[in-house]
Amino acid sequence: MSGVSGVSGDVVPELETERTIMRGFRQSDLDAWATMAADGDAMRFVGGAGTRVEAWRSMAAHTGHWVLRGFGTWAVVHRDDGRLLGRVGLWEPEGWPAIEVGWVLARPAWGHGFAQESARAAMAWGFRELALERLISLIDAENVRSIRVAQRLGMAHDGQALVRGEPCDVWAVDAPVS
């Protein structure tokens, strides 16, 4: 089993922000992730509440995304106490319109700036390490909290897209000019 725990660390680079550590998911994250995944409010705009088994599959999919695409989402943990706050990062599953910077946090982490702080680090990594020219966020028009985060990240509304058969707003930001 020791090789399994190292897989994520070998594939997923660790990022640090002022208040968080962004790293690959670990098996030890399952309890906290499953609790968050079962919360209908936290998961409302990302597919809805799910079971513990679905939470595990989600962790596995996000970990596998790194292997298949070379980028992905990070488990975001609080620097001070190590508690899982959620996931943030770059995502482009098959059929997605472009590389998305996305975030989903547990309700106790809402309203503290963790989404913006972690998303900004993920964006900087994508622009620097992947030489991306543009990132999008796909946000339901009713998701006012995420729209505010996108605006704080310098994103602007850029039309609509159909994702999994549902319309959503596209928010976009271009790479900074150096």
Structural description of this entry:
Helix content is 34%, strand content 28%. It has 5 helices and 8 strands; from the N terminus they run H-E-E-H-H-E-E-E-H-E-H-E-E. The strands form 2 sheets. The chain has a 5-stranded antiparallel β-sheet, sandwiched between helices. The chain has a 3-stranded antiparallel β-sheet with strand order 6-8-7, covered by helices on one side. Mean pLDDT is 91; it is low at 1-7.
What is the structure about, briefly put?
The chain has 178 residues and is α+β, with helices and mostly antiparallel strands. The protein has five helices and eight strands. It has a five-stranded antiparallel β-sheet with strand order 1-2-3-4-5, sandwiched between helices. A three-stranded antiparallel β-sheet has the order 6-8-7, with helices on one face.
Descriptive terms for the model:
178 residues; 3-stranded antiparallel sheet; alpha+beta; 5-stranded antiparallel sheet
